[in-house]
Known about the structure:
Elements: E1 5-6, E2 11-15, H1 22-28, E3 31-32, E4 36-38, E5 54-56, E6 60-64, E7 77-81, E8 90-94, E9 97-98, E10 105-114, E11 119-127, E12 133-142, E13 149-158, E14 163-172, E15 187-194, E16 199-205, E17 211-222, E18 225-226, E19 232-236, E20 239-248, E21 253-264, H2 273-287, H3 289-307, E22 309-312, H4 315-331, H5 358-370, H6 373-385, H7 387-396, H8 419-422, H9 428-443, H10 447-467, E23 469-471, E24 476-478, H11 496-519, H12 521-531, H13 535-547, E25 552-553, E26 558-559, H14 583-586, H15 589-594, H16 603-609, H17 616-626, H18 637-648, H19 651-662, H20 679-693, E27 697-699, E28 702-705, E29 715-722, E30 725-731, E31 735-740, E32 746-750, E33 753-757, E34 762-766
Parallel strand pairs: 28-32
Antiparallel strand pairs: 1-2, 2-10, 3-4, 4-5, 6-7, 8-9, 8-14, 10-11, 11-12, 12-13, 13-21, 14-20, 15-16, 16-17, 17-18, 17-21, 19-20, 22-29, 23-24, 25-26, 27-28, 29-30, 30-31, 31-34, 32-33
The structure holds beta-D-glucopyranose (BGC).
Amino acid sequence: MKQYLQLDPWNIIEEGFDPHHHEISESVFSIGNGYMGQRANFEEVYSGSSLQGSYMAGVYYPDKTRVGWWKNGYPEYFAKVLNATNWIGINVLIDGETLDLAVCKVTEFVRVLNMKEGTLSRSFIAQTPEGKIVKIEALRFISIAHKEIGAIRYAVTALNFSGSLSLTPYLDGDVSNKDSNYDEKFWLEVFKEVTPDDAALTMKTKKLDFHITSVMAYSLLKNGEPLTVTPEMIHQDKYVAHQLQLEVQENDQVVLYKYVANVTSRDHDCDQLITVGRTHLTSAMELGFEALLQEHLTAWDVKWRESDIVIEGDVAAQQAIRFNIFQLNQTYTGEDDRLNIGPKGFTGEKYGGSTYWDTEAYCLPFYLSTADASIARNLLIYRYKHLEKAKENARKLGFSKGALYPMVTMNGEECHNEWEITFEEIHRNGAIAYAIYNYVNYTGDTAYLGQYGLEVLTEISRFWEERVNYVPAKDQYMMLGVTGPNEYENNVNNNWYTNSIAVWTMKYTLEVLNDLQKNEPALYDELINKMNLTEDETSKWCDIIAKMYYPHDEERQIFLQQDGFLDKDLTPVKELDPSNLPLNQQWSWDRILRSAYIKQADVLQGIFTLRDQFDLATVKRNFDFYEPLTVHESSLSPCVHSILACELGYKEKAYEMYLRTSRLDLDNYNNDTEDGCHTTSMAGTWMSVVQGFGGLRVKNGALCLNPFNPGHWKSFSFKVMFRNSRLKVTVGEHDVTVSNETETSINVNVYGNDYTVNGLSQIKVSL
Ligand code: BGC
């Protein structure tokens, strides 16, 4: 754990330059706009350790699978988010010496991520080996008002010399991924051009033919006055630049504005990319840096109005929750239903930037509550569009029908290649089905079911139907050879969570079918025909629902994570010598698998998801049994525990678990932030506040709140959108205030009592 960042409610601040922290900071200070994202790499040359990362959403590379022992059913490739053209680069030469923080003496270094405004700034004083001293002030943003545009203001002040200064803004397509199975580069040059006014570079991927065009232009000021310099136009392999040669006097300040438009063949024909890029760039230049920035700030202001959480009396918690919200908002904006949320967002390459069950199980509630319903709907449509591929995936694994959604995907095809996960961690199908329920329950958009949802539900139910096996001697259905959410157990029989979510899916699918038959018989007939759904199938589902086997311990009255779980040594984690932790770094895989230690919520994930099915005493018994065995070595784990602990009144536990997720990256808890931030688990942190401390649930179409103040804060407040209204819920030391920020009145239930909150008014209820 490294705590080197300053506390502040709206900013992440790094003071002083320590190269050991640099790659962590490159992740933490990343910026993005849903369309593209950028790690906080320096503009100028940096010869120290750095992970370069410029990502364009949806642009990926199918890197040929590399495994030691090939198994039938493995995918041919692992899709990787691509480190694309470096568009931020500006080389600086001071009287012939390269500005490089790895070799200069650096003082007064400050790097700031301004979360309110969505900007990254950096200032420092650098002394070159020859003794020339410059002050640099850089400000960068990726516009959320003009998604193709990134802009940089880069100011250089000569502090102790008069001489030459060379500034070279460039585009460099000769970039690589750290994570490349065969150490190859993924890009080929297609086109480049440098004119006195701009420079353009088009690169394409070696496979799949994704094209990215970047077009850049600049303007210069010297001591506040516009400056015209004839640039030297540089073309090199996969590289274009303008070299600007200047003479400066001591104390002169030169400001370079660099504007870049990045466009891709995902949105435009390849032969149009240069024209489209230039058009965006020209509009950006016409607006100018300040106006562009203003529009960007205004757009962020709207996002914060919809999603901010305010925590009074604890600046570390305040900063952390805003950091989580900021990352989620800059990773996914929901405008493009072909995009999704990778576990690292735009902050690193790990997990390939691909889609996991994290989206449905963790991220969906955040977008449901903080944005228009169309945003969350697009996350569902993404899976609907992948239904055919999910069916193909099931066929590939030998199923005669149904759909198995992939564990990891970019385009609907499975990319994951560890048999115990790819073939066995099938609970992911349940999360995708449950997300449909969650969306419809929250938004009331029942039309979604007939339009898209039912087809997905049916194919998933069909998969479960074939995946279970009937055991005549017991007259029960079982599910053998699976991996539950706890990946520290593989190839187990009857994972309680998987059996439960499978049955839940079939029940819900039948319910949706019945409702549709009653309410929209014509559409029902059309869909039954389209899907060829027979009564034999639905009767089979009913039989499975009635006769599913669930492992259970009579004595303790708990659900068993899987068959045989109680045969393990059940020594709780707190009795382990801490030198054993984290298990995934200290123990062999074999030892982990044999132990009872749980990586992340499993039975408790099921209880959390299907909460309405269990009384509080059942929740308590299972929580008390499983939590002490849990090592939380997935960032997705603590939030589920925090939310259940809130319900159980375990305030300290709830708060402890909350802290573990909320500052995970800011304090580099897991010593892995340099690989990227844990973006999907950030949605879990948000859930801990809103569903945990706020106790928000939707029951029978009504918003219910059950808030408590965890005691470490003077107050906290959160915003939620619900059915055309936006509410601000403030939980103080003695009471809860629910303010309706919109004009539509809304009914809410607080601590079991119903209230109407009229438009633009509020109610107060004692805690
Ligand atoms: C977790 C999975 C998760 C993945 C990506 C793994 O460590 O066990 O549940 O989907 O990370 O976040």
